[in-house]
Structure formats: structure tokens, C-alpha cells
Write a structure and sequence with these properties.
Layout lengths: L2 H8 L4 H6 L3 H8 L6 H7 L8 H16 L2 E9 L26 H12 L5 E5 L9 H11 L5 E5 L5 H10 L1 E9 L3 H7 L8 H5 L1 H7 L4 E6 L6 H18 L4 E5 L18 H14 L4 E4 L5 H7 L6 E3 L27 H10 L3 E3 L7
Parallel strand pairs: 1-2, 1-8, 1-9, 2-3, 3-4, 4-5, 5-6, 6-7, 7-8
Amino acid sequence: MSFYDIYSRYKDFDIDSFYNNISDKDIELILQKDILNEIDFLMLLSPKAENFLEPIALKANSLTIQHFGKTILLYTPMYLANYCTNQCLYCGFNTKNDIKRKQMSLEEVEAEAKYISSKGIKHILILTGDAKDISSVEYINSCVNILKKYFNSISIEIFPLNEDEYSKLIKSGVDSLTIYQETYNEYIYDKVHLKGPKKDYRYRLDAPERACKSYINSVNIGALLGLDYWRKEAFFTGLHANYLQNKYPHVEVSISTPRIRPHVGDFSPYHIVSDKNIVQFIVALRLFLPRCGVTISTRESENFRNNILPLGVTKMSTDSNTSVGGHTNKQNQTNQFNICDTRNVEKMMEDIKTLGYQPILKNWDII
């Protein structure tokens, strides 16, 4: 069994008809429960539940403090390369886009690592495009060997790997995987991924589980909001996280809620996702999965990130740059997408403290 079996159970479910039969009483009963099932979660994502956002948010806040305390873990992304073999309509690294391609040398990786760590950041997320012949597992492994001199936690957001490849990187020092399914809708997935290895829906869908089998410490999953209806994407993201939590209890599971941002290319979201929609997604998820981490990136604005922080968020990026080597070289670089919140580490920490929370720069040590 894989998550695809659970996905298949619900993929043709008529959510609109289901939502038409939900009453206020249904939502009120869910709010009295300590443990929610899949249908309860689906109801909390409904239009009817929008009338109960305040009590849901209060409960989400309480559960988050109970399981995570008033802490926010900070990290920053480092782009190693932007070579790519895919044609993804929504991505600036699309192989058809005429952008300057670059891969950092190991010397440049070390310089970038030294610069970022000097700001206090101890959790790094490294990213590449999907070009396995260029950004090979061996290249990434060499980068990890440098990065672990400067960081206590190394996460990867790269192309899907097999179990042996994940094991190799984990043994080198990688402890976390971020991989977005982009959309759980198979039809839309095929429509927006024109060519390249990323067209393989199932191989990507099963990637988090392969990493779990390889004994990675944590995985972070999500959908790129704007490709399908957000309530469906939120539902399947929650089901996926629940599946991984139950089957691999040794793994820390988190979700992200990224929305499509301006980038090189002319793709526009198929569906608009509002701030209110993101809030409902996060607070509903918190009630369904109290132990699940929630990451909000610099795709969102400073004001929105400050306001949503108490509602279930556990991790935030800061001082982000989405170009290759962009932390130390800010000239003539192409971003994968434009970030929205430009706060540096110092300002982020100051604002988090003002909101009554503790910023965390170092969560654990690599043994």
C-alpha cells in the first residue's frame, strides 16, 4: 500500500455535493472532539466552516502551543543550481525559459555557507533544478560535506531520488526533505508538466515515503496552491501528512502552503487562493494533525506572516534569495520566483519576539 491508494479512494469524491449537506451543527460537533477523522478534516475545509474560523483558530493556537511551545524555527534557502530538464509552466527554471544558467562551484558553496552562517542561521535548505546529470547526487553529496561544517541541519529540495540515493545523502548529513507534489490532481499535474522526468506523477508522489524508508529525520510536503481548488489540495495534503505520520512515526512530518508567485514566464494561477483560505487551511490542519509542523515561507508578505504566526505555524524562512548563489552574488541573477517578505535574520528575530514567540536558530546537532 502507498499513499496513492488513499488518494484513489477520494480523487473522484464529489466534494461540492458533500459540502452542500454540511450544517452548522456538524462543525460545532467537530469542535468538541479531541481526535478528528478524515471526514471531520474535510468538513473544516468547507465553506460552512468559514463561519467558525475564530473558534477553530483559538483551538489551533492552543494545540500548537501544547505541542510546539511558543517557538518558531528559522531557516534560509540556498540555491546550488538552476539547470533543469523539465518544462513546468509555473516555474522560472523551466528549460524553455531564456535565463542565465549556473551551478555553484564547491568553492562558491563554501563562501555562501560561510556568509549565511555568519548571520546566525544554523538550518539550511539547499535547492537545485531537475538536471540529474549536472546536479548529480555526487555533486550534492560534496556540497553537503561542506555545508555540515557550518550548519546543524541540512534539508534538500531537489528532484525525487530512489531509496539508495536518499540513504547516501542522509549518511552524509542530510536530515530533512522538502518535496512538493505541486498538485494532487493527476489531470492538472499532467497539463502543467509538459516534458521532463517530473511528468511521472507517481514517482514524485512516493518520494517522501522513499525518504522515510531511508530513515530521514523529517519530511515537508505540500501543494503549489493555485493549480487546483485549494480545498481539494488542502485535503489531500493533510491526508498525505497523516499517512506518513501514521506509517513512519520516527519521522517529523510538516506541510507548507506555498502560493504561486511572479516568475520568469507568463503562467497565471488557475485558481486564486486568498489569505483567508490559507488561514482556514492551516487551522483546520492543526485540529486534524496536532503534531504536524507548518512552514510559511517568504512567498507571503511580512504582514500576513506576522498575523498568521500564532495560528499553527512552527517554521519560517528568512533572508531568502531564490537565485543561484544569491546570498553573496546579487548581480545579474535570475530568481526562481520573486519573494515577498524581505526581512533579514535580525529583523525576523526581533518581530518574532515582539509577537511573544521565541525564534529558534539551532534545533539540534548532527551526531
